[in-house]
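# step 3/5: fold
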Amino acid sequence: MAPKVKTNNKKKQALPKKEATSTATWPDLPQKLVDIIAKQPTMMQHISYGGLTKWARPPVRSRWRHYVGYSGHAIVTKGATFSYTGSSDLIYLWFPVNGYSSCALPEWDERVPIMRVVISSPVLRNFFDKNSTVMVLTGTSHPAFLFYRLKGEGREWVKQDCTLTEPHSSMKSERKNFTTFTNAIGFNGRFYVLSLQGTLAVIDATESYPRITALSSERAVPSLLPKHFREYLLESEGNILLVFLISRKSIKLVDDVEVFQLNAEKLSWVKMTRLGNRTLFMGTDCCMSVPASRVGCRSNCVYFTYHTADGWWVFDMEKGCVTPGWDDYSTTKSPVWTEAIQEE
């Protein structure tokens, strides 16, 4: 039976205020959780990229300015940020756990769009001693990927085209098109990359010349094709999770959530029915998996927010329903959040 959305006359999923997008700051997480992270900064290691919206047609790609994303324990930015005057042609990695130390990557060709910037493995301390690779997804096929090894001798990006045809094209006229990769996560020295049509590819970044070593036979899409959905890739308890915020009835309403865990050996996605003590937070510019007992929120739930509604919403994995959560600016305390009971 399909999950039902509980209605609440006191709070409806209304359009956000005009100033909401202009005043948004990173990370887009509940203020209560941000306060806890400020006291326990190592929790930032559990933050991942924000979601990627997918439609029946390819999304319009834009070239990022300033904040780009979060990967490998680093904030990825484009151009001058944090009152630092730098070149607009450079991509920077900022490491907040290490006092916001930074690393400037090679000069970027402004003709090449940026969709995702991902690090193959976490960079915890001295990034010059870390044999990690940075990969940029362009959302095109020529070039599809750009790579840069942090511990390498050169100061140039290595470009690679994609000549793989998309095995899951929805239209016959598109079946001869090259695969367009739009989402990715770095995990154990490899990149796990999703295409626009849901094909999963594995890129081995440990080799001198990164290449695709495996492709999935299944599509990574919601169980029932919706009108609109937003996907998130994140690491949780040593596994890769794929989360869908699903809009079945209206593109302005999230009425279902699905969580899948990657079987790395079979490259297949296994739908999860329980999260145990974990809680997932899905913001517009980042996402995070945390032990519920550590931050004092409800376990076995997915908290999320999105552009077309105010405040935070909660999907209960056990009940299979979406209910209103809270608004950070409300004077009313959320009944689903308690004080953190575990400290570092």
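# step 4/5: annotate
Residues 31-39 form the longest helix (9 residues).
# step 5/5: archive (pending)
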